[in-house]
Amino acid sequence: MSYFIDRRANAKHKSAVNRQRFLDRYRTHIKRSVEEAVNRRSITDMQHGEKVSIPTRDISEPVFQHGQGGHRSIVSPGNREFDEGDRLRRPSGGGGGDGSGEGGASNQGEGMDEFAFSLTRDEFLDFVFDGLELPHLERKQLMDLEEVKPVRSGITRDGVPSRINIVRSMREAQARRIAMRAPIRRALREAMDALEEEERKDPVLRNPSRVQELKAEIERLEKRLEAVPFIDTYDLRYNNLVNQPTPSNKAVMFCVMDVSGSMTQSHKDIAKRFFLLLYLFLERNYEKVELVFVRHHTAAKEVDEEEFFYSRETGGTIVSSALTLVDEIISDRYPPADWNLYVAQASDGDNWDDDSTTCREVLSKSLMRKLAYFTYVEITPHAHQALWEEYEAVEADFPSRFAMRQIIEPGDIYPVFRELFRKVEA
Amino acid sequence: MTRQTPIATGSDWNFEVLAEFEREIARLADEYRLDTYPNQIEVITSEQMMDAYASVGMPVGYHHWSFGKQFLSVEQAYRRGQMGLAYELVINSDPCIAYLMEENTLMMQVLVMAHACYGHNSFFKGNYLFRTWTDAGSIIDYLVFARKYVAECEERYGVVAVEQLLDACHALQNYGVDRYKRPSPISAEEEALRQAEREEYLQAQVNTLWRTIPQAGQDLEENAQDYGDDPLGLHQAGRYPPEPQENLLYFIEKNAPLLAPWQREIVRIVRKLAQYFYPQRQTQVMNEGWATFWHYTLMNRMFDEGLVDEGLILEFLQSHTAVVHQQPFDSPYYNGINPYALGFAMFTDIRRICEAPTDEDREWFPDIAGSNWLETLHFAMRNFKDESFIQQFLSPKVIRDLKLFNVIDDDQDEMLTVAAIHDERGYRRLREALSVQYALSVREPNIQIYAADIRGDRSLTLRHVQDRRRPLAKSVYPVMRHLHQLWGFTVRLESVEDDEVVRRYQWPLPNEGGQE
To answer: What are phi and psi of A47, to 5 degrees?
Structure first.
């Protein structure tokens, strides 16, 4: 007798838990590989997983086994040239044959020193951002009526049949039955006791009308007992659902970059990597992340991504123009009550001298009050200029929401990023 | 025989076609008296196949990182195209669960049904090792119980604590079987019922064993004479356990002084599952050979009857030939003796010896030459394991066909010696050597519990009976560490050859760093 079952629709990823256990166990190994990968990879490359290798000896599951040496006898197939009694040189590399035999399940052996496997993109990013935390992650309230979610909230006495809470209803019913039957039962027991007492008397002394009466009473009580309903509309309980407005989980990220003549393509590449890391990071924390690209030389302009990274410009630098534009865009389109606002600025540190004070003013007076976080990376191997100093003053005023770091070469990006978003120990 | 029209042609399949093939295979299998458990044939995707693979084919299992590791390596190999997924996976259960992969062609599905649902299935039901050591009816229930129990422990005592315990048990799982004692089969339901009871009982037993206050009484009077600094004779009571114990996990479960009841139960779970896999480790050649022999026979019968067409049978033959191909030892693809090749060759040859014996066969196999081949095949399948099967049935012809040869590798000899080849003088020696090669007792080091110092420092001593000077591999230390975790006190291991201790190991390592 045989039967077929189509299981294709069943859940796959039955091994997901075991896989996660494995990743947790070798966290440190994997993290090292991931860090190397982040530094090595081009930035557009963050969207796929990563191959990770762990030395086999670190993950082996030891069992008692025979080691090398001693006297062993090996039977092998495919003899062409040997004759009994032939003496052979020992093949280099030892081993030779499968004397110890294998159990089947183990994948050791085969001379593999590394255990290699692939992380999925999500797992990869988990490791990239492991231990990092978004500062000031706030759930902004959105009044939009669309964003409501029905949530369970207790039990009610009325509702639609599909929401009947059976357990609670039955419990109520049972309680009611007990409560309603108790007095009847008591009366019944008394009546029966009385009847028994009456019947135990000597037939001469027995009062027939009393017996009659008691019997009628018992019958009446038994009927009443039976009449108590098993379940009553009164017992029904329903799961209550209320519509709860869900907090909006939206963020907007402003990428601000200096595109003046002093910014070379390699500067821009570094900036781009930094922006992308930040974008991926935000994406993991918010359901929806919008990007706004603002580039500037002497004047600022909102552009699309392509233009932002690849168009060439020349001329001087006025940073404040970009900050003012960001401020305007926020006022126009992104009310701080609804959006989590992040600004990431990249520059080589050049600015017109008297503009740096203006920048500070724009930031301190207006912009910083609206933002969740402002990060500034200066991509330069040279000494800092006026802009850095002014920003340091801003950082002193808003220590928890303003962060700035210097990046010299591509290898610094990831460490700097990690430093900026390090989890603050509580 | 009247040739019928093929059930289906081409490589696409659907459930009706599969069911019809299945009926035909069942009919033919019945002719050959293949007695099977009912088949539960599950069609799954390749992803699900990888899942199944990672959990050693078990449809449910407890969680452990090592299964995750298994999964990752299967997945990696599959993605890279290094390995096609095994096209069949079959579970020794009642009903017998076999997986068909969605991507397979019609030919593959039919082949897998013949191979797994009738070949392996009848082997599971018939072979004496499986009959003795496994209870197909209750394994799934037991797995469910084990998974639930382990999950509960994880919740109560933490994932890490359970994981460490499982690591330690896994290291010893090849030593979780009483080889010379028959187990009593037990159903999972009973198991669950008895589990709570057992917890208490076990603990009570351990407590008795480890009671530290000496019992006054007969010992005192009998031995009070002259024991110098041991007037009570506390150290005279003899070794515990009185006989060496080969089932390390069982000994741990019953005697480890510090384990909590739930920990003992988990040791037991690992031991029970190890026991379930014990027959499979000893019947690889037979099991695969038997299944391959039958898929080959059944497919050819179907072709003869016209139930499959030329296209399908050619596709089948190509696949079958690849499966039973034996790479020569010097091929870069050589990976040991292929159990499919050896097993198939042997079963096919037994049939040949029965049906068309030569003089050589009459001399070597007087009992079976010319006998009823089906009877003989069933007899062989029922009553042997790889070791004895080879000892009994490996014929000179198979040795010649596979060109087997035997090399002696002795570390006291600079050169290797060819001890036997496929010639008149070599047959018997090769048969002996190959049989030994499949003996579990030779493949795995013989290690037993020798003494537990229950009256002294509570240390545990194991004995490794060294065989032909083959030492233990380096992995002995990590395994000892795991054993130490379970036992809780110093663990020693002595390698003994010819009644002489040749090497000692200890964990934790002695302070002097003495023996390597």
So the answer is: -85, -5
A141 occurs within a structural domain:
no
Residue A278 CA from chain centroid, whole number: 17
Q: Does B40 lie at the interface with A, CB-CB under 8 angstroms?
A: yes
Give Cα B296 distance to the centre of its chain: 25
DSSP symbol at B128: H
Whether residue A2 is contained in a domain is answered as no
Residue A166 lies in a domain: yes
Is the domain of A259 the same as that of A198? no
Does A383 contact chain B (CB < 8 Å)? Answer: no
Q: Which among A25, A71, A117 is the nearest to B410, CB-wise?
A: A71
Considering the domain architecture, whether residues A225 and A374 belong to the same structural domain is answered as no
Query: A2, B38 in Cβ contact below 8 A?
Result: yes
Q: A21–B117: do the CB atoms touch at under 8 Å? A: no
Preceding amide of B95 cis, omega within 30: yes
Q: Give the domain range for residue A175.
A: 161-240
Helical spans, DSSP H, in B283-372: 284-304, 310-323, 339-355, 359-364
Contact B417 A85 (CB under 8 A): yes
- The residues, any chain, with a CB within 8 Å of residue A286's CB and separated by 6 or more, are A249, A250, A251, A340
Same domain, A406 and A257: yes
The pLDDT tens digits along chain A (426 residues) read 788 988 888 776 777 888 888 888 888 888 888 777 776 665 556 666 777 777 777 788 889 988 888 888 899 999 988 998 889 888 765 444 433 333 333 333 334 567 778 888 778 877 877 767 666 555 554 444 355 678 888 888 888 888 899 999 999 999 999 999 999 999 999 999 988 888 888 888 878 888 888 889 999 999 999 999 998 888 999 998 887 766 667 788 898 988 877 788 788 878 887 888 888 887 777 777 888 889 888 888 888 877 887 777 777 788 888 889 999 999 998 888 778 888 989 888 888 878 888 888 888 888 888 888 888 988 888 888 888 888 888 888 888 788 888 888 877 877 888 777 776 654
Nearest residue on chain B to A5, alpha-carbon basis: B42
Q: How far is A336 from A136, CA to CA, in rounded Å?
A: 13
Contact B421 A82 (CB under 8 A): yes
Q: Tell me which of A240, A258, A279 is where a domain ends.
A: A240
Number of domains in chain A: 3
Same domain, A302 and A344: yes
ipTM above 0.85, yes or no: no
Domain boundary among A205, A240, A275: A240
> Is the CB of A99 less than 8 angstroms away from the CB of B409?
yes
Residue A229 C-alpha from the chain's centroid: 50
In angstroms, what separates the C-alpha of B295 from chain A's closest C-alpha?
17
Statement to judge: residues A224 and A267 lie in one domain? no
- Measured between CA atoms, how close is A366 to chain B, in angstroms? 50
Closest approach of chain A CAs to the CA of B253, in angstroms? 18
| A81 at interface of B, judged by CB pairs closer than 8 A | no
Task: Based on the fold, state whether residues A290 and A225 are members of the same structural domain.
Answer: no
> The domain that contains A415 carries what CATH number?
3.40.50.410
Give the H or E element holding residue A361. Answer: helix A355-362
**Sign, Cα dihedral of B72, B77, B81, B87:** negative
To the nearest whole angstrom, how far is the Cα of B312 from the nearest Cα of chain A? 22
Query: Which B residues 85-144 touch A at CB under 8 Å?
Result: 102, 117
Asked if A3 lies within 8 A of B406 by C-beta distance, the reply is no
Tell me if chain A has a CB within 8 Å of the CB of B80: no
Contact B75 A85 (CB under 8 A): no
Chain B residues within an 8 Å CB radius of A25: 65, 163
Q: What pLDDT score was predicted for residue B265?
A: 93
B331 in contact with chain A, both atoms CB, cutoff 8 A: yes
Both A120 and A169 in one domain: the answer is no
Q: Is residue A278 part of a domain?
A: yes
Residues A379, A283, single domain; the answer is yes
pLDDT at B432 over 90: yes
